[in-house]
Amino acid sequence: MRYYKRDPQGGTFLLPRHPHITEDCRAVSEILQRVGDKWTVLVVGKLGDGPLRFNELRAAVGGISQKMLTTTLRGLERDGFVTRKVFPTIPPRVDYALTELGHELLIPVGALGEWARKNTERVRAARAKFDSIQA
Fold first, then answer.
1. How far is CA 111 from CA 41, 42, 45, 73, 90, in A?
2. What does the pLDDT read at residue 102?
3. Which residues constitute the domain of residue 91?
4. How confident is the model at residue 1, as a pLDDT?
5. pLDDT for residue 9
6. CA distance readout (Å), 9 to 15, 16, 44
7. Contact call for residues 69 and 51 (beta carbons, < 8 A)
8. Looking at residue 3, what is its pLDDT?
9. Is 129 within the bounds of a domain?
10. Would you say residue 16 lies in a domain?
C-alpha cells in the first residue's frame, strides 16, 4: 500500500494510513484537538467563574501570550464554546463568556483537571521509573 500520492501540480501529499477510520473517529479527534490543549482547558476553566475581559482573562490564566490567548479565544468562539461581546465605549470593552455548550464542557474539563492534579506524582514516578530502565 502506498502512503504518498502525486499531486497534479507536482507535489505529494500523505494518504491516510487507515482509510477505514469512521466519521465518528474523525469527529472525536477533531473535538479533542480543540478541547485537549492546555490553553483551552485553562481558559474554559477561568471563564467558568463568569465573563472576563481579555486582560483579566490573560492575567487569570498566567503565562499565556497575547497572541496565543487571541488564537485560543477565536477557536473557542468558532466552535461555539465562547461568546465575544463588544461594548461601544472608549476604549472598546470586550467581554468573553462561556456559552451553554461551553458550560457543558466545564464538566469533563474540570474532571480531567482534577484527575491531573490528583495523579501528578504518580505520573512523575512512572516516568522516572521508565526513564531509569531506559538509561
1. 11, 13, 11, 21, 40
2. 95
3. 41-134
4. 43
5. 58
6. 16, 20, 42
7. no
8. 47
9. yes
10. no
In this structure, is residue 17 part of a structural domain?
no
The CA distance from 112 to 89, in Å, is 38
Query: Do 95 and 41 form a contact (C-beta atoms < 8 A)?
Result: no
pLDDT value at residue 10:
58
Helix (H) or strand (E) run with residue 20 in it: none
**Calpha distance 91→70 (Å, rounded):** 18
The pLDDT of residue 26 is 81
In a domain, 18, yes or no: no
* pTM for the model: 0.71
Ranges in the chain, pLDDT < 70: 1-21
CA 37 to chain centre: 3
Separation of alpha carbons 110 and 91, rounded Å:
34
Q: Quick check: 25 and 65 in contact, CB under 8 A?
A: no
| Predicted local distance difference test score (pLDDT) of residue 43 | 94
Domain count, the chain: 1
